[in-house]
Design brief:
single chain, alpha/beta, Urease, subunit C, domain 1, TIM Barrel, 7-stranded mixed beta sheet, 4-stranded parallel beta sheet, binds zinc ion
Amino acid sequence: MPEFPTELAPGQIIIADALMTQPREIIAQAGIAVEHGRIAAVGPAVQLRSRFPGMREQHFSDHILCPGFVNAHTHLELSFLVGKIQGPIAFPDWVLQLIAQMPQPAEAAHVIPDATQRGAAECIRFGVTTVGDITRWPELTRPILAGGPVRVVSFGEITALGKRRHTLQARLDAALTSHAVGEYLSIGLSPHAPYSVEGPALRRIVAVAESRHLPLAMHLAENAEEGEFLATLDGPLGRSWPLMQRLDIIDEQVPRFRGGPIHWGRHYELLLDKRRKTVAGLSPIPVVLAHVNYADDTDLKILAESGASVAWCPRTHAYFDHSRHGEHPWRKMLSRCIPVCLSTDSLASNPDLSLLREARHVLQCHPQTSAVVLMEMITTLPAQALGLSQQVGRLAAGFSADAVLLPLDRSVGTDANAVCRAIVHNAPEPAAVWVMGRRMK
Ligand SMILES: [Zn+2]
């Protein structure tokens, strides 16, 4: 693990042959001026030099300076499982293998921090400067992540189902642990999934998040069988699952619900209509829904009304072979103004934590896709999903100086479509990465 600088870089100007302030705006011979970790100004090199005379300048030919990438959904602590579970595999079988490989409590104290550090370093390697990180071990992961190098919204994962519902308060308390909160780390809550958190527990978690104005993240509509589980408590995610048989936690108090996981999410107030909330004088908290691989038109209407964002993980979608049930509805979502981000999920189901490779995978499967939109799905849209749209995801005055430097042939020019297409097609590793103005790579 390399040492990361702890001091803020003094004022500096970073110039490249091209600057992407956001995917639709490319400027030639331009850059950013950085002071105290924030972007003081953005623009052509000549303007920055005259406005900040004497400021140290770095110039990078044949490169483009872009906003740092934002991964709205991953599990850094599972990085020790890279390559350990071969796909394609059915989700219930994967969970069984995952649990079999989880460290015992005594081992967890070093396995989990090491894996978290490894995952964070891999984020920097691929230019990911902000992550929404799900953690079952906040007491082990947050102290590690508090010192950087990546900005983290650490979502404490909560399960509360059936005979284990009494553990809800203890899990909430753990997820709310805030002593590591600082410049790199903020916290959120993550009710795990419809087959591990029962409805009343979900409602309580949402209420706690709203009272503290914390973002929420939840795995929702990841699997086609969630509706069957909610309606009957049976099926591959219910009583027929060897995991549920072993745990023996389902009891008659678990409420049954017909209508599928997204209607269930609305019923238990995760996905309320954002206009209703605004009328009630409440400002909506960010809600990130991981996957949403299955959604019909009525589900999409609920999602659009809720203001929630979707973190789609294309290579993990392929790993679990969800396309046997049909394509992911991401284009329908975008056309209904539902924010969709590209995310990686964990190294237990994804080959790496590169968002550009995620985007390249989508472009290879759907060559007609706008590369500008794909770039938005790893910058501006996930920043919005995590509630950080005024801090990261763009290079603009007042934003955090989180930037990546990518090789780009000067001949590509400054047309946004051409530039984004070249970047996504090549998916290069960054030559340099800055977080809050600190050079991390
Ligand atoms: Zn996940």
